[in-house]
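Subject: complex prediction, re-run

Hi both,

The earlier run crashed halfway through, so I resubmitted it with identical inputs.
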Amino acid sequence: MKIAILGTGNVGRALARGWARAGHDVVLGSRRPEDVHLRAEPGSEAGDDIPVTDLKGAAAGAEVVVNATPGTASVALLAGVGQLPLAGKVLIDVAVGFGEDSSLSHPEESLGEEIQRTFPDLRVVKTLCTIDARLMVAPDSLEGPSTLFLSGDDAEAKATAAALLHDLGWPPESLLDLGGITTARGQEHYSLLFMGIAKALGSYGFGVRVVPPA
Amino acid sequence: MKIAILGTGNVGRALARGWARAGHDVVLGSRRPEDVHLRAEPGSEAGDDIPVTDLKGAAAGAEVVVNATPGTASVALLAGVGQLPLAGKVLIDVAVGFGEDSSLSHPEESLGEEIQRTFPDLRVVKTLCTIDARLMVAPDSLEGPSTLFLSGDDAEAKATAAALLHDLGWPPESLLDLGGITTARGQEHYSLLFMGIAKALGSYGFGVRVVPPA
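This time it finished cleanly. Structure:
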């Protein structure tokens, strides 16, 4: 599958490597592609020869677009890409926006909803925003199974996202479809608890599991 | 321990029964104690002969006060109790406030913080707001261990709360101290994800577990 990942931070790079390893055709999109030199950086590894281009070019050639840009800038960056290169595509939104004092940039709703509202032709699926970048592509490194959530209005788009999550190592039983894109609120608001847990543990290396009745 | 539980809804009753079974001296506080007839109701059970009195009377005689009133009314109800009957006491706050459309009544911060700010002489501990009333007092009924969180500025008060949670069946390793009362935000905001999960599963009967690295 042709996947464009917008954003070249830890999350964008981790996902790019994960999906490239799974055999997908991955390109990274950056505001300043000329400044991104993956290979030259300390800790560069296999998969760091993923091509980097501008945001619009990356999105235009892709079947699936991943929003891994900073949450407070995502809507403006997607607007810069324009409606046309995005029209009809699946957008996997993994971003969360934080304002000052680690508060949410969308305290009353969610970034996922704003993106869906702003780009009605996109088929937005919110997922992967409840776990650290390294674990997104290595769910097996946890002590036991953990849960990932999906939110989105388009069932087919959620199935595409679920298949791509499976390619990262997430088994079907680890995925929980929460419903429409408004349920992205729950995923994004969990970020506050995520940060609290991370501070308490001194590590971002944890997952969260929905524990059913015995 | 003398425990006053303010609020006679599902949560208040469940906690009252749980702590009474553990041997504590429990009283329920209600705005209209004359209207609360626990024994007479369908499904009444052992523990339903817990005394019910007014909010002020309940709080005045207690060592530990539990806020299980509706989150949108809690601050006003506690103000009605007054500073004096609460001064110096541990207040275990288990409430979450919801506005219209299931949004949080405290989207920018938390009810726990507002209570602590409004009643500086109280020692507020936020906990138990991430799980359904029935499971609060029956953590063993889940398939595996789940996690409860504690937030509060007073270490001694959190130790008291942890001991009382232990009496409800929560082992020490299930408790995660998130830090000061500002971390109540994470617990309260998780409510949005909690409701999404409940809707997806068709049940409130689940816990959540922080899964550490292997």
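Strands of chain A lie at 2-6, 25-30, 52-54, 64-67, 90-93, 123-126, 148-152, 175-179, 207-211.

- K.
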